[in-house]
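Input for the complex:
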Amino acid sequence: MEKMKLKLLYSDLKPELEMIEKELEQAVDSKSLLLNDASLHLLQAGGKRIRPVFVLLAGKFGNYNVDVMKQVAVPLELIHMASLVHDDVIDDSEIRRGQPTVKAQWNNSVAMYTGDFILARALEHITEIESPRVHEILSKTLIEVCRGEIIQIQDKYRLDQNLRDYFRRIKRKTALLISSSCELGALVSGTDEKTAAHLRRFGYFIGMSFQIIDDILDFTSTDEELGKPAGSDFIQGNITLPILCARKDPELYAMLKANLNKDLSNEERFKVVEAIRNSSGIEEAKAMSERYLQKALRELSFLPKGQGVKTMRKIAFFIGKRKF
Amino acid sequence: MKGHQIQSKIISMEIEVLNAVRQRTLDQFTEGPSVKESRLFFLLLPFFSGKTWSPDIEASAKTVSIVYAALHAHDQVKEDAPIIKEQQLTVLAGDLYSGIYYQMLVNSNNIAMVQRLASAIIKVSESKTSFFEEEFRTVEEMEQAITVIETELLMSFYTFYGYTEYEMLAKQALLYIRYAEELNRLQANNYSHFLRELNTSLVHENYTKYWLTEKLDSLHEQILASIADCALDYELTQFLLHQITPHQHRAEQLTREG
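Predicted:
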């Protein structure tokens, strides 16, 4: 339902997004039946396609040509997909978006090669664009996203980490790719540098807000809504903002510490999830997300008024209020 | 070029790769970037033979080595290993190396090479995955897949810079090395996906052993012929035959042993 609401928000882009969906399917087409199946399995599990949407919307501020925009939108979504399939190996995840992950459906090796294949397809596509600036931004983003994930592993189970560690991590893990989606969309449509910079910052702030909400939903949603067990972040040792805000309660801190890095039964997991839900951590994290959202909206205020800004604003509000 | 100079150049390339991808956490928890000596030897073969070798080509060879390291890291991800830090970081090491090779080629304004390498990685991934497919495949199809896995990246490099005269020799030598490794695995009962599938096709382990040893003998002959075709000098030939593809004449030995 939530995903449908989101899609309604960018209904203006429906024809372009349908075209991108087809392009994505073609992009993962392989002469290997197994790679084909694994990639389509991932693609058809759905997703918000938030990165292509931001590429397209950013393009509205320049000379919008869908054939050019899709050359960026498709690879960015492919890069995101490739990282998801590898993330599921890293996290040993069995379920994503309510579907078995590639590693669960096949095995780790197939998941690794599927990720490599999809990333290579993304690079094959993006190299159709000659602009060195586009490649500078994208290659830097790819590296930073990986560094963010490495830091995430370093920081696992560290209940005493500080807020800066968390923000540094989500910046690299999520915000940069969304920020780059906006900036690249702006660049290939030939907007001026000032507009591109506002769009880049908008993408960054919205990406930060998006990830914080994601981390909140991991505690506040049900298993069914999430398509995976609630509290997965905690189980996997990822110390997210709701936990960092909640830990100042000494009792809760002791409970979290006692349950961290343990093989939790469902009952124990629910207890942890419930404790976080009932703590101040959720509201404090929401306030933090709201602050980023306001910063994102402020960036929009510098852009020329029009449909692009309207849709971006609606998406920003949706992200702030989404349920899962 | 003397043998020790060849060795020294290979080591220096290894160090350059290491420096290019260095990351503190990865250094601590993973085996680090690994590229087989044989692959580096063939990447550098045009340089060893005195062909045109600009700094751009050298940089490009380094990026191919990094792609090798990226794909190798992902080959190391185990099926049943518990989710330990080492395994998680090995996945990310491969991804990071991929980002680094892309950035390095972008910095040297060589987008065309990014495209070539991406296409080669696609073929390699398809061939690697083929060993997990349930469909029956002929031995020839398996050989084809192994050839792509072992040589596609190098062939992209050779084609891109016009070093096609070394293609045949490199293909034969890299296949030789792969089959020699597979034979060692067979003898140690350490089966790869390829060996399992080959065994199924050839029905009995002894036939697999014979098939591999015959392949090695035949490839050795072909390597000798290709060395002559490429007109490699004495030192380079000696280095190749003794350091890269030392031959044991195993088929003859097997026949003698009955």
